[in-house]
Design a protein that fits this description.
Layout lengths: L2 H7 L1 H13 L4 H9 L7 H18 L4 H16 L5 H26 L2 H47 L17 H10 L1
Length: 189
């Protein structure tokens, strides 16, 4: 019996434990709601996490390409990036999978002599953790960009209301050819 077969055979137990481990990182009220409410419309966060974990596990076991895996990681991490998790807390669910699989199949690995396959799979999991952190960083950067743009827009609106700034017409051409510089000069002083 090879590792891939073992992982597919024990899929339901591993995925359930992994989902439970991820959901346990939320406050108790959230955990109860995520586990109890199965309707995707009423519980989009819980549904996205569960479906993302199931799909991610299947693609990981089937050795899918990184684009597919990135999409499923993005589904999970995007939710966690906007919540109150530290970076390590947001991506820790990958490491939980590693431990869950070890707990489930350690004896089988030794009995079936598939330690080389396990070592290669562990390396893939480590790569997945790095990819997960990249996805998390991208999501956080997007959030930061949105916040900066919102603050910039609000500041500009306040300056306009105070009569300290105005919008230049779309067809305005700066004498130096740099409209952006002219707008910055007007806004800053």
């Amino acid at each position: 019996m090879n590792l891939k077969h073992l992982l597919k055979e024990k899929r339901s137990r591993i995925v359930k434990k992994w989902c439970d481990a991820v959901l346990s990182t939320y406050p108790e009220q959230g955990q109860k709601f995520f586990r109890k409410q199965k309707d995707a419309i009423a519980n989009p966060v819980g549904r996205r996490i569960v479906e993302g974990i199931e799909s991610l596990y299947d693609e990981l076991v089937d050795e899918a390409d990184s684009r597919k895996i990135s999409k499923f990681l993005d589904d999970i991490v995007r939710v966690r990036a906007v919540q109150d998790f530290s970076p390590s807390g947001a991506v820790s669910f990958i490491f939980k999978l590693k431990q869950i699989i070890k707990d489930e199949i350690a004896r089988d690995i030794l009995q079936n002599g598939i330690s080389k396959e396990w070592s290669a799979f562990e390396t893939r999991l480590d790569g997945l953790a790095l990819l997960c952190f990249d996805v998390y960083s991208e999501c956080r950067q997007k959030l930061f960009d949105i916040r900066v743009n919102e603050i910039r827009n609000q500041s500009h609106k306040l300056l306009k209301m105070a009569g300290l700034a105005y919008d230049l017409p779309d067809d305005y051409e700066s004498p130096g050819g740099d409209v952006k510089l002219k707008e910055d000069e007007v806004e800053n002083g």
